[in-house]
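PROTEIN ENTRY
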Amino acid sequence: MKRLAAAVPAALLAAGALAQPAQPPPASSAPVEAALNAAPHIGITNGLIAARILPPHPDKGFYRGTRFDQAGVIASMKFRGREFYGPWFERTAPEVLDYTYIPEGIVAGPDSAISGPVEEFAPLGFAPKPGLFVKIGVGVLRQPDEKPYDHYRHYQIVDGGARTTRVARDSVTFTQTLSGAGYGYVYRKTLRLVPGRPQMVIAHVLRNTGSEPIVTTVYDHNFLRLVPGNGDIRVTFPFPVTAGTAAANPPAADLIRIEGNSVAYLRPMTDRERISFPVTGYGTDARDYAIQVTDTKSGAGVAIRGDRPLVKVNIFSIDRTQAVEPYIAINVPPGAEQRWSYTYTYSAP
């Protein structure tokens, strides 16, 4: 298998590579529990796993940001009593970009206050001048000035498209239909708990109903809350891992060891410590989209498999969450559709 990364324009990979913006603490903030309790939610189960899904809603939804796909936010997922997801922040504030710290804990802004295996598409049709552009899973957004695109920035949603939700006992399907800013699509996303297995499949169908090709990337942020501080976490890939050079926050030598196919956390992360760095070594075969995250002390973990080749992988962590961010390419000509899926297998001894 060739160990060459797929060629993807750098602009389409930049959405998850920005350094965190510096910012003062907010004047005020609200506890995340209040927003969770007020938001609509959907419960699904397969008898082994129980999940609480937060559906999109323009006025009442828990997540109304413009960074991530608004569908498929997971507030809780439990298997054998172990919680895998949930908010990694204690409070929220509208003026915060990304997140910051106050004495009461972490405060997340409206575009990063999200939880679970959430996805972000690179923008379509964005130009550094006033106008409209599109983010799949969000809608038609307004660019008010000549600044470059910034996924931490909150943009006005001009049109969120038409949305439908279909719920079954063990699954939920979200559909967004949108036409605007030169693009048109029908985007369907299903979260399904596999009968008799500790597994979840996230399946996608993107159909291009417009006249312009849809060329973008999407990555899953995978906000995993396996163990506080991430001490004893090991991330394993099917290829020899090397650390990329474009690290926004490179890991300290006493925190991370990269050896062979794995990235190991040598100690718990401290308060306000942050790492964000790319890893390389993957090839052009979808078999390289196979990631195992394990708490080596308890044996609990999750295996993530995708059915598309990787075009980038980033690792992000703070003491509240550990995230492997795998990117894939999306290229859908007018009248065509693209399907892709991720399978999550959970373990909790």
About this structure: The longest helix spans residues 32-38. The helical segments are 10-13, 32-38.
